[in-house]
Amino acid sequence: MKKILMSVFMAVLSLTFVAQHVEAKRLGGGSSSGMKRQMPAQNSPAQQAAKPTAAPGAQGVPPTVAPKRNWMGPIAGLAAGLGIAALMGHLGMGAAFGNMIMMALLAAVAFFGIRWAMKRFSNSSPVPATSGGPRLSPNDFARAPTPPTQPMSRDMSVAPQGVSSDGMLSGPSFASVAAGSTSSLPPGFDAPAFERIAKLIFIRMQAANDSSNLDDLRQFSTPEMFAVFKLELQDRGNAPQVTDVVQLNAEVLDFVDEADRQIVSVRFHGLIREEKDAPTTTFDEIWHLAKPKAGSGEWAIAGIAQTA
């Protein structure tokens, strides 16, 4: 009888340990939750690289070739100057006078050479938009570029949503593409700046999830998504979580202008390590960021969608 009771006790104890073990996961648990939207079709690289068809009147017209600049002009001028100096020496005008003319020609060649080099380097190496400016901090996410207000187009409308049995918003998968729709961003929207700030908030939110920082999770997420994140923390309990973002890429995919808010969909993909000393794994997901038009609200996570 004692052996049976001991066996039952050990079985219950082992099941308790198994139940308490929670697999380490990044923010969102690597699953889709919250807002679901239809993503517009993205043009393939082959289509983007295709050259536009030439107009009928332009066919057969050879392209205009820019004049090729070289150093033959300065070199020819220098050779002429040396010849003049030698001629003056033979004519008895004095070596000093010839040397003065040669030095003047050398100075002119150096001046125009330096000017040409500076112009060439300035054109071939444009300065990045963020260089020379203040370093961005995660708090700058609240001041991320806001697209100009414009009427919402039919192709960019949000898919109808309902509430599923688990209380989450349901709707068509982000991968379902509306026929004939194309990705469109409003004029004046600084996508690279938004993508950089989106990367900062991605890394900061992973750190907040690791440290169970409810303040950060609440600040940069909608109430619905905050409830999801908080439930994940409760399920994890005291289990340690260390997320290392090894490689991160961000791409703005779409923008929607609704009556009371704006929505920007950003694709994140790269390499991530979700446990200490664990191998890196690839990830690819889309975050839907929403910002209310009224007040001074910040961009907040309204949904996370996995690409697979």
Explain briefly what this protein structure is.
With 308 residues, the chain is α+β, with helices and mostly antiparallel strands. It is 37% helix and 17% strand. The protein starts with a helix and ends with a strand.
Describe what this molecule looks like in 3D:
This protein has a five-stranded antiparallel β-sheet with strand order 1-7-6-5-4, with helices on one face. A two-stranded antiparallel ribbon has the order 2-3. The chain has helices at 2-20, 45-49, 72-90, 95-124, 191-211, 214-219, 223-236, and strands at residues 33-34, 162-163, 169-170, 244-257, 261-273, 281-292, 300-306. The two termini are 52 Å apart. α3 (72-90) runs antiparallel to α4. The radius of gyration is 32 Å and the shape is elongated. The chain folds into two domains: 24-40 and 138-306, Nuclear Transport Factor 2, Chain: A, CATH 3.10.450.240; 72-122. Mean pLDDT is 69; it is low at 12-22, 43-58, 65-69, 122-138 and 149-182. With 308 residues, the protein is of the alpha+beta class.
Entry keywords:
308 residues, alpha+beta, Nuclear Transport Factor 2, Chain: A, two-stranded antiparallel sheet, 7 helices, 7 strands, 17% strand
- Percent range of helical residues: 25-40%
Which blocks of ≥5 consecutive residues have pLDDT under 50? 12-22, 43-58, 65-69, 122-138, 149-182
- For the secondary structure, the number of strands is 7
Overall shape: elongated
How does the major sheet shape up? 5 strands, antiparallel
